[in-house]
Predict the 3D structure of the following.
Amino acid sequence: YGDEALAAFKRYAELRYSLFPYIYSCVNKGIKEGKPLVRPLVFDFPEDRATRDVEDEYMLGDALLVAPVMDDVSEERDVYLPKGTWYAFWTSQRLEGGKWVKVKAPVDLIPLFVMSGKSLVYSLNKGVTIGEESLRKLRVVAYGDVKEIELDFGQIRVKAEVSPGKTLERDGLT
């Protein structure tokens, strides 16, 4: 598939590894609450009738909406954003939900959206390995009105205050 496909794969592999703390915390929370990590929009937004018909988008944890591109010829796609405020992951553009929006979707850029009032936690570890080291240096990005975050890594729990729109970096888990 060439250099373009390799660059796209590398970008998403790095994103996946950097999101390991978010994913790991969501899995632990899901085990306790009986919620799968990946779920259809209707699972999180049952009162929003439009989510019943959305078949090609999903929530990854409580914060991240994923709208994959299902073909290799489209440069944009329609995305349904459930009611509320959302932020485009790649641009931080604020969008109001409860409607369909047309977004750019080149083959190397999966449309991702973060729900307002949530935060994403990244590992600052630059490796492509998963382990305790990935949980030591963290960066938290808050979207919308977030005052505090709680992360559950099983044996280790992290609770920290954050400021809306600010980035929190933390070295070490306590």
